[in-house]
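Section: Multi-chain targets

For targets with more than one molecule, the full set of components is provided together so that the structure can be written out for the assembly as a whole rather than chain by chain. Components appear in the order listed by the source. The example entry contains two components.
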Amino acid sequence: MTEKEATARDEAPQPTRPSPSGRQNPNDTVDGAGAAVQVAAPASPLTVLGRAAGTIWSVPKARVGLILLAVFLLAAVFAPLLAPYAPTDNTFGRAEGGSAAHPLGTTTAGEDVLSQLIYGSRVSVLVGFVAGFGATLIAVLLGMSWGYTRGFAADVINFFVNLFLVIPGLPLMIVLAAYLQGGGLAMIIFVVVITGWAWGARVLRSQTQSLRSRDFITAAQFSGESSFRIVFREILPNMTSLITGSFFGAATAAILAESGLSFLGLGNTAMVSWGSMLFWAQNSNAILTGQWVLLFAPGLCIALLATSLTLINFGVDGLSNPRLREGKGR
Amino acid sequence: MRYVLRKIGLLLLTLWAAVTLNFFLPRMMPGSPTDAAIAKLAQNGPVSPATRAAIEAQLGVPTGNIGDQYVTYLGNVLTLDFGVSYTFFPQSVSELVLTALPWTLVMVGVVTIVAFVLGTLLGVLAAWKRGTFLDSLPTLTGTFTSAFPYFWTALLLLFFLGYVLQWFPTSGAYSARATPNLSLEFIADAAYHAVLPAVTILITSLGGWILGMRNTMINTLGDDYVTFAEANGLAPRAVALKYAARNAILPNLTGFGLALGGVVGGSLLVERVFNYPGVGYLLYNAVTNQDFPLMQALFLMITVSVLVANFIVDVLYGYLDPRTRR
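Its structure, encoded as tokens over all components, is:
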């Protein structure tokens, strides 16, 4: 879509609109592509995505992140095939050590730890993606409208975003979760979205503010385009890397938040997730019985999944800020 | 001065919004505190309407229309009167909160400052030595440890340093025999108990400071005035600290204010693991016992602390960077 926009703008007979090349930030993906279009055949949106993915892949840290994330995604999707037992099957011996039948042992309730670990990835992956998407959507809608409007409306949004930015997220989450008892996964996602959008909104707003005074926006305003169209069709394509970045940021926060709530027993404790595994481990005094696998494994999975998203974000950073790309800076 | 006055105005407005949010939250939610208390009683037998009225009177459940309730509530907040706790009946909520607050404030406060200073210095070092071992070690370790869930780090330290090696006490804020006072002996005892929770927060929050400082520092290092200073033949250390880091620390300072909320949230999970008697542990108890007045007051207290800390950071920022005072 980004590419089509650029192409349409370049080829349409619009004398008022100055050629974008050389005016915008030269690192801008759209701009670079737009300039290329004038000489070469129009590239498809897939090519643009492919190019962005290529840039991310070229950063070694991001490559490690993508591979890690792929492993967790596969585990989540194919959990029934990969897990040796059902996660809630508690017919095995209690608190067993590792063996051929149970590589990571069993819980104090007699469930297979490895199976729980594999099934647990489903909750974290789902919460990360759904809540990350929800929070990013609100951040895009609110942050970008906020960056484009001036005057009283902008001040009001400013106040609300600052309020949500400053109010500590986890305590608010805990209080909300206490009121909305028994909501399960949907409740957790809702709460994470409510508390997780403000940071992205603020980042997107400042970028919108800097873009709104560019020439191509002024041109669009003079040609009578609606504000909505300008914000979401003209400005938005220039911010792909920021939006992707805030998605990964929000997803990481969501995964950590969900595991924290589950650990406190505020999620659905009957549902097998990495957080609830740790809740039960703590509840059944795994520390005293020395079942360190129960304490170690679920937390490590949470940390690895969150790290994989942060690592991918290093690559996304490189898209928007070449100074942060790998290599010797000085 | 005008800058400070405007910031004070904004702080008061934000405080009011937080208090109002706290007022409407329970009223927008399904279920009521009285229902929760009655559900508890109902486990022992049927509850009569008279009992219900008695409970409402005793718990101080607000009556009248919502406008009157709101005015009464504002008055109560101003006089720090949050009613009585359900769990620790008949102790007042304010009393409970005030006993728990110093533990969290001191422990989290000290750790946050240590983490900020240490992380910022490591970030400066990483940016300056970019591409070398001194960059990749703190950056990669920081990326990994900042993804650690607070409670998991806490559990691991508790397991290895507390139970297996038995180097540190595993729960509480002071020895069972001691009574809180300001003697050196007691302070040493309290500090010893605070080591594990503090180290947990340090490990999990350090990475954020390192990465944040490194990123802004790399940007300032590419700026013209830094190149100019270097070309003038200034010592590299002076360029790094007096030119680049001095400017790069400003955005990080805003981050410091905002990250406080996260640290407070994280300390809540840590306090739960170590049974550390701070606000976080109290909030956990309030939530599991459906002690709504206590819960509300604690949430308000945590929010107000973070708001005030942010206000201080904001004012400080205005003095360090006059451009923001416009």
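Residues 236-274 of chain B form the longest helix (39 residues).
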